[in-house]
Amino acid sequence: MIRFQGSTRGVYFAVLGVLVIGAAVFRGGVYWLDIHLQKEAVLLRGPLSNIPASIGKWRKLGDDASLSEAMIEELGTPQYLSRYYARDGDASKGVAEVHLAYYTGLIDTVPHVPERCWGASGLVMTTLAHTIDIPLDASDWKPAEGIANHATGMGYPTAWTTDPVTKRRQRVLMPVPEEGWEMTVTAFKNSSNPKELLFGGYFFIANGRLTSSAYRVRNLAFELSERFAYYCKVQINARVPDGPNAEQQFAELSASILQSLLPELMLYLPDWSEVEARSDESVKSPSIPTHE
Q1: Per-residue model confidence as pLDDT tens digits over 258-291
Q2: Are 254 and 234 in contact (CB under 8 A)?
Q3: How does strand 209-211 pair with strand 176-177?
Q4: Domain map of the chain by residue range?
Q5: 82-129 pLDDT, tens per residue?
Q6: Which residues fall within 8 angstroms of residue 221, CB to CB, at 6 or more apart?
Q7: Beta strands in the chain (DSSP E)
Q8: In the chain, N or C: fewer CB atoms in 10 Å?
Q9: pTM
């Protein structure tokens, strides 16, 4: 048996005492400062696959992609949607892939984005990732009266959707954009089709706000003062002819589909104003919004 001298035992117990007191002070500080290191999950209001097959001028093309278990593990979430849409249902008029991935209840996660992932599949990046404006028409998305995002103090934009079955209108709160309606875009080329560019553009909706940055989204979704956290990656992929106006064509195509997709998506993402209003209560799965 190893025996320590009295002075050594004294130092040992002194250090142990400091550690115990430090742990207690840390826990107390976290409590009193209302810091939440472990985020609680926020449930979707319905599966993403319920997003309509027809949105604006765009019609679903083929079946939704079904990922393997290995691919879902790589993606980091089983709550996703990968679906192709064709303009007017005619692939010759333009095709866009909508990819959505929803994350919640995680301490932290790294988003999968084209500039990090597509190169591994043999594509050649022709432009570095950069931010562009999405030419959406948000003139009718008026701020909701009396409902503001707690983090920014800004009112949530309000949009209306029409139920495809009942034809009744539904009000939905849109995300608060950090710096306008923007997306991060990267262009790639495949050697098998050098006359065409493949664009990947994305942004994130996190805790009721919108950002185009894969780095900034982690700050939005994992703020220490927030008890709950979620974020959803919204990505549009499309092929356009290579040329000086290729990026503009992609931006206009993306805006065309997002104009109708975003309000539909927000029906299924959590209503963050409700989460903020009951942040001290246990989260229960909210119902699909009522018709107005």
Answers
A1: 999 999 999 999 999 998 887 645 434 444 444 3
A2: no
A3: parallel
A4: 8-36, 38-277
A5: 999 999 999 999 999 999 999 997 655 667 888 888 876 779 999 999
A6: 39, 103, 206, 207, 229, 230, 231
A7: 54-55, 58-61, 80-87, 95-104, 124-133, 142-148, 155-162, 169-173, 176-177, 182-189, 196-206, 209-211, 230-241
A8: N
A9: 0.81
